[in-house]
Structures are given as structure tokens and as C-alpha cells.
Amino acid sequence: MHSTQTRTVNVGLIGLGTVGGGTARLIMRHHDEYLHAYGIDLKIARACGLDPARVDELGLDPAIFTTDWREVTSDPDIDIVVELIGGEHPATEIFEAALTSGKHMVSANKALLGRHVERLAALAAEHGVQLRCEAAAAGGIPVVNALEHALVGNNVLCIAGILNGTTNYILSRMTAEGLDFAEVLADAQRLGYAEADPSADVDGFDAASKVAILSSIAFHTRVTTDDVYMQGIRNVSADDIDQARELGYAIKLLGIARWTSSGIDARVHPVMIPRDHMLASVSGAMNAVYVVGDAVGETMFYGAGAGSFPTASAVVGDILELAQPIAHGAAPAPESEPYERTLPIRQIADLETRYYIRLSVADRTGALAPVVKAFADAGISISAVNQLADDGDGSCSVVFLTHLARERDVEQVCDTLAALDDVRSVASVIRIEDVDAWLDGVEKND
Amino acid sequence: MHSTQTRTVNVGLIGLGTVGGGTARLIMRHHDEYLHAYGIDLKIARACGLDPARVDELGLDPAIFTTDWREVTSDPDIDIVVELIGGEHPATEIFEAALTSGKHMVSANKALLGRHVERLAALAAEHGVQLRCEAAAAGGIPVVNALEHALVGNNVLCIAGILNGTTNYILSRMTAEGLDFAEVLADAQRLGYAEADPSADVDGFDAASKVAILSSIAFHTRVTTDDVYMQGIRNVSADDIDQARELGYAIKLLGIARWTSSGIDARVHPVMIPRDHMLASVSGAMNAVYVVGDAVGETMFYGAGAGSFPTASAVVGDILELAQPIAHGAAPAPESEPYERTLPIRQIADLETRYYIRLSVADRTGALAPVVKAFADAGISISAVNQLADDGDGSCSVVFLTHLARERDVEQVCDTLAALDDVRSVASVIRIEDVDAWLDGVEKND
Question: Model-level pTM?
């Protein structure tokens, strides 16, 4: 038990949905543990939501409820404002009001922070307060904390993550059951694993926001969601997954951010990775973030990227971190002044990797000759060709694997191929990620 | 760049071996990054080792070298003492001298901290300083930081880790190559993956120290190495691994610590876990720590548990955490007062799990009847029996799988079995861990 005198730490909660509700429940259920173990008397002093009935449901005191977030940000008793409504507005206004009033902030708002984390962190620094956002990247997985603290002695070289549970769930089921994207998506929607409008997940926006947040923190530079190349999983077929398996690969939607001497390489797209890579064993709706540091080498952080209590775990971890000094009469260290450098962002056209290209080609002798010529003309070297089963309409699928090639050349050759008489379509282009290159720059041990 | 005025933070390094050397190199190589990104001017002001030649090798200033650790702990300019010599003495004296002189400490000393982390943390609290030990449990993997910070909103329910790289390397090679323990150990010793005296690794002492440290932190109670039940991997055979594979399991040496209503269950021993469990995919000399919290659910932290630079990554992370306030003219928060509770430790005899028991039995009709009777008499229910290939000396191996059974009953039945005429030996007893039970107590999401 803590004998030192402590003062109550007042939290203002804005947003009482899934994450807000989990946060309220966690704080109330664990109040006594936090008090006994850490000397922190944590109190939800204000709760802002749309529906007063939610207050009853959560067991909060109705007297603290408001529908006006300004009553939270302007309340002089509030130490920490917790924004859990998501979206750009009024979240932006809430951040600005809270930070300029000298309140510390905790947020899980990946959409907003993916665009503006650097500006908002600078605003926090200017007003001597902290902005914490563990829950905004990979939910309950404590990777932001690791990047900001335990791994801070490293130059981070690479972050590669399964950052979206919906797409990992869909790809896992496609892999396990041999089904196509549309079938699994429909089932996932029925089961509540995918939204009615699944675009933010399946087209990669959600993962791109998290790449932006994580790479801004890891590389001390400005990376926004708009800087992140983005391609979703709609084009991945059961055939591709099957071919990948035969080649020893799994297909995953990864968010990748690498420090390179020519700039930050930040992208979200389906990749083939070796089936024995740790990221390949992450299945279902789980998330994982693989981080390579020059000293620590490879690390991986695994856990739930979403859900009421896992996300609340991250939110409450941030709240307690701020509450620790406040409870003992001190102020949390203000947000660091921004590290003023802006590293260039590498264009996807400059990517150099190996490619898996699946074409639908007329099933007749000689159809492949112009295809092979097109690759040769583009200077793209082919390592393997594999003709798959008949597509059933007088055409068949043929898979080409390239040696190392430049993205711009691959884009160009795909245009050329699509225009050939005997090529019905360029059905899939999937990058084969060089996972060994992720370790470039790791210090050799003695 | 940081515009605020900062002061140099002086580190006294005691121990210039593998980890000490990595730490010195990392601090020197990254000095400018730490200064620019965090405003921390980190300086190795004193270095204590046995051999002055090491100073040259590391590129340290010879003027800072000493062979007397007291010159480090008593130096008024030193802010942070870093103890990297390992062992109990003079490490204990270094801790006491440094902490009572009001110096913050960073240590990777798992043997010492496994026995005394709680007492030394209390000493740090008493003197208003911090004791940090990220590197002492699972090397470069930032799990201590996660338990003390990002996951602090959770009640930790279970920790299960691959905490020793040598044994994981040996088991991985036994699994991949079908070799027996002694063969792989000899090869591992030749390659430098195992010590000439491998006991601390293969008999589980090293992992038990880490279980003690992690469970003391996670459960806010005193768990020392002596409290941890310990059994190594010497008895695991290629046959067992083969049988496990057929049953859908992998064999791993796990350190397990669970909070239960009847006390802390803390143990290190080989277990069978499902092959699709995340811990089963950790191969070679890598480590991983699986942590279950009531809010976050399951998480896993993966990385290098040893090695010069990975361990230095954890040490320098701790140093920078302390250096941050010092550089800006403030004091790091002192170690929290100990949470004064001592939860009971559950005895291994009370463990209830399923068991894999391999007997060497005379190869003759009727030999199994008294075996089956012995199980029945002990009240142990058998779920499967599998006779393996002939052992070649008139006996054969027979594997029994039990339903849930109590450890004390299994111990007793093994004594009974060993005394039977037709039982040549009880060759292996391996616990089949109920990994689903690790999740008992996790909050259900809305």
C-alpha cells in the first residue's frame, strides 16, 4: 500500500462508444488496484457522449454526463482529456481546445493522428503538456511505448506490421478455406468482422494511417497518411494464395515503413512473405508489428489490434502514465519539442523487389511468345513461369515470377502486356517482399 | 534539433564484457542521434573492467578506466551506474553502494535480480532513485517496460516465455533434424551456442531467474528464483519430439507464471503446446514472452534474448529513460514504494494438467496390464495409449496420455510404475500445457 499522500486524478472522457465504454469500465473495475499498486486515485470526472442512456449502461454517475465536449475541455478540474470519438471533426477542435488549455491528452484517433500527429504533438509541446496515442496504432499492442521508450537507443530501420484485423481475418480464411475475397468478405460482414462499408479496411486506409503514426514516431520525421502508398486486398484471389503456398509464401496485407538512404519507404499492400516468417504465423483478426532496430535486431509485438478492452488497455496505460506524476503532485514531462527534420518520402515507382504476376492468357500455342518478349524488352528478368489450370473460357492463368525489378518498369510492362491480343487481363501483381533486406543495417554482435 | 539548454549525463559503466562492450559501442556510435533527437548528451564518464586493453578495443578514453568499482559508485559526477558484470558478488555490493549514494542504476544481472529484485527496488525507493532492469529478462525484448508502463492498466493473468535461447536452439534443432539432446548439445557447444558448462541453461536456472523477475513485476509480489519450480530439457528425447509432432504439439522449454486464486504458479519445464500456438513458431536462439492481461487479452513480445547489441539495446533504453529528465535538469521519478503484499506460491504438486508419459516396457504380452491397473488405482484417467517402435533390447516404448490429472498423483504413479517388473524405466514425463487456461479471466469484449 502507498503511504504517500496522493491527489485524485480527474479524467474527462469524450466518446462513450466501444472503446470509450471499455475505458470507462476498465477504470471503474480496477480503481482499487491502481490505488493500491501505484497510489493513483483515478476518477472519471466528466463523460461526454451522444446518448444519456449509455451512462446508465456503463454505471457512470449521471451528474458527470454532458453532450457538449467543450464542458470537458474547459473544466478546470480535468487533468487529462481522453478523445475516443474518432474522425476529423470535432476531434481536431477537441485536441486544439484541450491542448491549448494545458490539458494532457490521450487519443485512439488513428485517422486524425495519421494526418496530423506531428502538428498536434508540436501544439502539445508548445503548451507544456503530453499527447499520448498508444491505442491509435495496433490497438492493445504496446508498440508506440516500445518505440518511444525501451527501443529508443536504436535507430529503427524497419517496421512491418499486420495492422488491420479485418483484412488479416479475410486473408486467413481465404488461405484456410480456399475461398475467394468476395465470399469471405460477405461472411465477415455477416459475422461483424467487417463493416457494411469495408473500404477503410480492405483498401488499406486504416493500415496506412497506422504506418504514418508509427513511422513518424520511429523515424522522427513527418509521415502522413497521404505519403503512404496504398493498395488493398480486393485483387487477391484464392488462386494467388494457392500459388503462394506452393512457392513457400503466405500472402499478408502489410504496412511497411523502412528507413533508406534515399528516404522513407512507406507503403501498404499485399505481399508474399516466407511461410516460416513470424508475421506469417499471425492469423485471424490478430495484429502484429515487426520492428527492426540497428542494435536490437528483429523484434515482434503481437496482440489484439481492436476491440473494446484491448484498446482500452492501451488508453488506460497512457492515462496511468500521465496520472503517476499528477497523483504525486508533479507534472508529467511535456511532449518533446519536435525533431525538426523532414526526410524525403520514397516513391513507390522506385521500389525494387521481386514480383508475382498472374496473367489470363488465350489458351493457344504461341500466346506466350509476345509476353516473354515484353518482359525482355522491359529489361525484367523472369525466374519462373507456371501455367495454372484452365480458366474455363478459352484462356488460362499463367504465373510469372521476376528477379529483382523496379516498380516503374513492372507498371510499364503490365500496360504493355494488357494491350497484347492474347492477354485477357493482368489479373494480379503481388510484390514478393525481401524480408532479409529488412535487417540491412543491423549491428553484428561480437 | 533541441534548442533547450541541456546538461551532460554521466554514466559509470561497470563491466566491459560482451554486454558492457555493446553498451559502450552503442552509446558512442549514437551519441549525436541521442543529442539531436532527445537533447541528451550521454557520456561514459567512468568505465570499470578487468583488462585495460579492452578500453582501447572499445575506443574509450583510457583516462576513464579503473579496475576498482568503488571509484565509479563513489564518483560524485556519475548520474547513472550501469552494472554489467553479472553474478552475486561484488554485484550486490555495487548495487548497495550505488543506490545508497543516490545513484540511479541499470542492470542486466538476472541471477542477482532473480533472487533480490524486490529488496533492491525497495533500497532504491528508500534512496529516491530508480533501478531499471529491462535487459535482465529476455535481453532486448522490451517486456519489462511493457509490464511497468503500457500494460499497467491490466491485471496480468499469465506470463509464458521462451526465456532461454540455448535451450530453444537445442530443441529447435532436435525438432528439425530428429537428433537427440546430447548430440545437439555437443554441436551447440562447438558452435558457441551453449557454454562448456551448460547447466544454467539446460537445467532451467537461467529461465527461472527471469520468471522470478517478470512475475515480481507483473504480480506486484515477491517471487524469487528459489520459488520457481525448475526442470530442464536433458530428458527430452527425439522420440518425444516425434510423438509430440504426431499429436499436434511442439515441445518447448517455457517459463510460466500464472496468477491463480490459490497463489502464484511459477515454473520452468518442458511442455507440449499446440503447434499453431504463437510460441511454437519461435525457433532457434530467439526468445519470446507471451503475456495475458485481463483487458488486453493475449500479447506476445519476440526478439533476441541475448547477444551484445540486443542486450545493449535494453540497457541503453533504460539509461536514456533516466537520462531524459536529468539532461533537462529534473530528477527521474524515484522507484515506487514496494507494494507490500506477498502472494502465496503454488506448489508444483498442486498443478493440474494433462501429461504425456513414455515408458520403456518389456516387449511381451500382458506387460501393460499392471501399468493400466496402476493408473486406474491412482485415479488417473488415460486418454490414449500408443506403442512405439521396438527399443531394440527386448523392450519397447509406450506412450500414455492422461486426461486432467494432479501432479502429486502423477509423481506417485510414476514411482509405482518404475517398480513394476515389466517396466524398464519411466523414460519421460512431459506436461501438456492447457494454453486455453492461460486466457482464464480475460474480459469479454462488448
Answer: 0.95
